[in-house]
Every structure is written in C-alpha cells, then in structure tokens.
Amino acid sequence: MEQQAEEVALARLAQAGDQAAFATLVQRYSGAVFNQAYRMLNDTHEAEDAVQEVFLRAFRSLASFKPERRLVTWLLAIGSHYCIDRLRRRRHTWLTLDDVAFWLPSGDPGPERLALLDERRTAVQRALQRLAPTYRGVTVLRYWHDLSYLEIAEALNLSEGTVKTRLHRARKLIAEALEAEGEVNIWDAETNPS
Amino acid sequence: MGRRDEPELMPSDGELAAAEAHTRRLLARFGEPSAVAPPAGLADRIVAAMPSVSRPIRPLRRRALGWAITAAASVLVVLGVWVTLGIGLAPASVAEATLLGQLTISLAARPLGTLPSGAGLVIVLGALVGGAWLWWRYVHRRDGA
After folding, report:
1. Predicted-complex ipTM score
2. Which helix (DSSP H) or strand (DSSP E) does residue B26 occupy?
C-alpha cells in the first residue's frame, strides 16, 4: 500500500510537469515494459521503440491514471494495446501471421540477445510468437508479469471469462508448440515435474 | 465485453488451477518465465527524449489562461463594436486616467474601429468566437486526455 501511495504521488508530480518524478517512474518500470514489448514483438529495436512510445503515451495521459490501480498494470495495459496494434500493422504491411510465427530474433548481438541464447528459452519465445497477438498479450501478462485474471481483464477491457478463455487456448497452443520443438514431451512434464 | 466470435469456456476452478500449474511447470522446464535485460541506458534515453514533449500545463492554470484569453477577446469585440457604431465617447477616453491606458485601448480598438463595413465586423466577430470555441475545445480535450 505504501508503494502504491508513493506511485500515485510520483504520478501526480509527473503530471504537474515534474521531470524528476517522471524519470523515477521510467527508471522503475522501463524494464517491465521492455520485457513485455520484447515478448510481444520479438525484436529488440522494436521493443525499445515501444517502450519509448508507451512512456510518451503514459506521460500524455497521466491525468487518466486511476490511483486505485497499480501503475505498472496501467503501463502494461498501454503496452499491450500498443504492441497488438503494432503487430496488426506489421501483419497488414509486410508479414502474415505464419511469417510472424517463425520470425527469429534479429541477428544484432545485444545483451538481451546474448541472454536469450539459451535454446530452451528461445523455444518458448518462438512458441509465444505462434500465438495470435490477443492470446500472446494475455499470456505475457499472466505468466511474465503475474497479473491476476481480473487485472488482465481491466487492462485489456475484456471480461474475466474472455481472459480465461484466451489463456486456456493459449496454454494449449504453447504446449503443442513446445512439444513440436521436440525439446520436451508435455505429458512427461505433466507426470514427472522437475 | 467478450467477443461474439469468441465463446467463453467455463473451466472449473480445479481445472483452471491444474492448467495453471501445468503451464508453469512446463515453462519452468524451459527456464521461463525469465526477465530479459533491457538495453543499457534505455531509461536514460527515454527520459532524455521527454523534454522535447511539451510539459503538461496544470489544469487550473490552463483554465485561467483560457478565461483570460476569452475575456480579452470579449473586451476587444466590445470596443470594436463601440467604435464601429460610433456610440458616445471614444474608447480611449474611458481609460484617460493614464496615458498608457489610452494608448493601449486606442491601439487595440483601432483595427476594429477602422473596419470599412459591417461585413468585416461580422467576419472578425466570427473569427473571435470561433477561436474562443476552439480554445475551449482544446482545454477540454486536454483535461480529458
């Protein structure tokens, strides 16, 4: 509760034009927003652009931030909408969903790329890219940001039932994708958890 | 709020919990969920880009500014009508207490006072009312953003 009160105070200061307060918020949450954007867009440079855009949008609409919500949830909501829009534009311009499914990370060896060299993690990232953007959005918020069903529903303007439905289907698709990777048999994973 | 083409499934709490646990175990076997390190200096770059964005004006100050502009425009309109219709004293004489007052009002009213016809006045009035309306819309849009 104390942290939430501090977040609200920082948001109000930033809204009033306090650059230092806004900088504090950026320092605190740019990592989370970057992670979400990377999982969604699967490209370092696009993810960085997305973080920039998310904070710009947040800065412009700080007045609409409701103090009863967590600031990080609000930022991730903006991030979800932005990434889904971006994926849709990408699909309409030069890629199909099938292309996206097999799109590998860019070859630029950034720190995050090095961190992702672990094959198993890359497999998960690939599996995520096989999901439709709307399914990917709820999956990232649920498993990478630990948002509750209700928080995801509020963030994406969906009903809780729709969130559960999308997650249910996304889970199945991820399991199938990972099984297809040949890395693991999901039924082994089910019966012999490590 | 759900989509018509996306019928909701209604798994029981037990099924949900089992599916959740299964997915988390599966992800864990692949070393996920893990955090990806953001590029070095990302936060600094974001903050550095922000000053190029106009600082949001406080709503109260914005409203006061809007009222001040509207009031100034209204005074100008009244003075213009006064001079154009030739009612009574010249506007400058109203502020005869100070030379600066006379000068300011004379200069402000002169363009309207010398308008050749009523049509010009209508155009100016329209522009002023339109400008005030646009400002009002702008202020409200910013408040609702």
Report:
1. 0.72
2. helix B13-29
